[in-house]
Structures are given as C-alpha cells and as structure tokens.
Automatic annotation (TrEMBL):
Gene: LOC103337224
Protein species of origin: Prunus mume (Japanese apricot)
Gene3D superfamilies from the UniProt entry: FAD/NAD(P)-binding domain (3.50.50.60)
Annotated family: Belongs to the FMO family.
Recorded coiled-coil stretches: none
Top-rank taxon: Eukaryota
Primary enzyme class: oxidoreductase
EC number: 1.-.-.-
The protein's required cofactors: FAD
InterPro entries recorded: FAD/NAD-bd_sf, Flavin_mOase, Flavin_mOase-like, FMO-like
Database matches in Pfam families: FMO-like
Alphabetically ordered keywords of this record: FAD, Flavoprotein, Monooxygenase, NADP, Oxidoreductase
Name of the molecule in the record: Flavin-containing monooxygenase
C-alpha cells in the first residue's frame, strides 16, 4: 500500500506541492469569506498566517480512537489498548484477551493473536445477547454478545451471562471524526460522529464551496471514492462544475438525515456508505463528467468481501472471480493499445488504480 501511494505521488507530481512535516494548528473564517490557516513545522517554528480562498479538509479519520463505554471500566485493573496501537501479537502471549468489535480490525487481530494468546474472546454488539460460540479452526477463540460490565478483580461479565477473567481488553471500536484545528463558528459540528450538515458528505451548504471534506465516508473501497470526491471539488473550485443553491443542498441534507432516521440507522453511522457505495461513486462520476467504474470492478469488490467471510483463513490465496479478472485484462488491453507513451498509460480516462 505504501509503495502504491509513493508511486502515485511521483507519477502525478503530488510530492512537489506538499509541505511535509508541517502541522496545521488553526483554520478559521476571516472577512470576505476567506480562510486563515496557521501551521507550524516539525521543528516548532510557527509559519506566518496565510490566507486562502478555499480549504479542503483531508485529515482522515483513523487517528482519534473511539473506545467502548462499559460500566466499571474506569476501575478495571487489566490492560486496555485500542487497535490503533496494535502492532504484533507477541505482547499477548499466554494472555486472556477480550476484543470488542466484530468488523475488520477485530477479525484480523483476533486471528493474529490466537496463535500466541491463552484465550481470545470477541465481544460484539451485533449478535444476540445470549450468544456464546466457539469459533471454527481455533480451539481458543469464542464469540460473545457485548460486555455487560467489568469488575475490579479483572473479571468481565458478558450479556450472555458468561464471565471471563481477562488480562487485556482490546478496543477494535473504530475512530472519532476529529478536527481540533477547524473553527467554523458552529456552522459545521461533530455530533455522535456525524459531521454536518454536509451535502453528499463533502460540502457544508452555508460555507460551500470554500470549505469541503474528502474521505469522511467509511465501510467501502475508499481510494476510488477519494479520487472522485477530489475531482468533484476541483471541478467546482475551478468553476467547471456548479453546485446547487444553498437551499437545495440543505433540503437534500435534511432528506438524507430523515431517511437514516426512518430506517433506524444510528446517527453515528451517518457516513457509513456500505449499502450504497457504488451508487454514490456513480453519482460523483456523473457530476465530474468522468467515466464511472466498470461493472467488473464493482463486482470484484463485492466478490472479494464475500470471499473474506467465506474463507477467512485463505481468502488471499483462493478466489472465484477469474471471469472478472479476464474482463479486467480485456479493458487493460484497450488502454495499453491506445494510450502507451514511454511505458506509461496516458489516457485521461484511465483511473490511477488501473495504471
């Protein structure tokens, strides 16, 4: 992944326009609808205040950990860490470990530490309260319902009634959206992990187009989404693409929030696009005037997800999407036959992930 990002930055000249080792400490509105940006270098030198016409917030959302709120956790004597700080399984050797969460991080880490830990217990709020299941393949891993409480003696009580004396609680519980540098006079807020109000997860209607966000949605193939969002913002800031009126954008936001409420979706899942990622990306592509992703690419993503759950131990080595790979090769042949120059594909229609 790191090699891909570095190659991408070199290919498109990104590194040349990045101010490395610099922290943005303040972004705020000033007169005339412009933005003051204050930053400092890694050496602690404060850079002069700079004024910009527009700001795009792209600081990601995998930095500020979210931890589970459990009765008794503040006096629990065991060790607690977040998946953000997990690196290797060795520190968990011969330990009784409880992981909270059942998404990607919990799946990966539980399997990683099962080979060295004494016991691994996964607590998930997405299963029935009476759940307690031995996990296949492993003789030391169990799936439980969520934790009910923890006791000072180190014991952990699950909603299924079982009790485990644990050494470690590992929070695989995601992250909070966090913008400590951003001051919008209360126009944009973070409420139960909903950043809003935002039109299509990107533009706050009252501050558009001078303020925008890239990369808030989660639970999907994120890099292609980043690219489409960036193209949309660039097109709008260059006056090539027009936004709806503030009133129309706000009505769209209200309708979106109402649909989430009607479907029983918690506010904290506002930016979860798992159920409509392809449609969202197709909409962005249409707004940008860019080709949407090929059908084989969309199918390949969903087949990969299904394979992950069907073959959790071998999904990287066994798959059943050869027909989609053949379709991909056919597309790549068109690109390489029509747009090769000095060994690089130069067609503007080719997404970077295809190069």
């Amino acid at each position: 992944m790191l090699m891909y990002l570095k190659d991408f930055a070199i290919e498109f000249g990104v590194s040349e326009i990045v101010r490395f080792e610099t922290e943005v400490v303040f972004v705020g509105l000033v007169e005339g609808g412009k933005w003051k940006v204050k930053s400092k270098s890694k050496r602690g030198e404060v850079v002069e205040d700079e004024i910009f016409d527009a700001v795009v917030v792209c600081n990601g959302h995998h930095t500020e950990p979210c931890v589970a709120q459990i009765p008794g956790i503040n006096t629990w004597k065991g060790k607690q860490i977040h998946s953000h700080n997990y690196r290797t399984p060795e520190p968990f050797r011969d330990q009784v470990v409880i992981l909270i969460g059942s998404a990607t991080s919990a799946i990966d880490i539980s399997r990683d530490i099962a080979g060295v830990a004494k016991q691994v217990h996964i607590a998930s709020r997405s299963v029935a309260d009476e759940t307690i299941e031995k996990q296949p393949v492993y003789n030391n891993m169990w799936l439980h319902s969520m934790i009910k409480s923890v006791q000072e003696d180190g014991s952990v009580v699950f909603r299924n009634g079982s009790v485990v004396l644990a050494d470690v609680i590992l929070h695989c519980t995601g992250y909070k959206f966090h913008f400590p540098f951003l001051e919008t006079n209360g126009i944009v807020t973070v409420d139960d992990n909903r950043v809003g109000p935002l039109y299509k997860h990107v533009f706050p209607p009252d501050l558009a187009p001078s303020l925008s966000f890239v990369g808030l949605p989660w639970k999907g193939a994120l890099f292609p989404m980043f690219e489409f969002q960036s193209k949309w913002i660039a097109g709008i800031l260059s006056n090539r693409i027009a936004l709806p009126s503030q009133e129309e954008m706000m009505e769209d936001v209200k309708a979106f929030y109402s649909s989430l409420e009607a479907s029983g979706t918690p506010k904290r899942y506002t930016h979860n696009i798992a159920d409509y990622q392809p449609g969202y990306e197709d909409w962005l592509a249409a707004e940008c005037g860019c080709p949407a992703f090929e059908e084989w690419r969309k199918q390949m993503y969903f087949v990969a997800i299904e394979n992950l759950f069907a073959r959790p131990e071998t999904y990287k080595d066994e798959w059943e999407d050869h027909h989609l790979v053949l379709q991909a090769h056919e597309d790549f042949r068109k690109y390489t036959l029509n747009g090769v120059e000095n060994g690089y594909v130069t067609s503007n229609d080719v997404p970077p992930s295809s190069r």
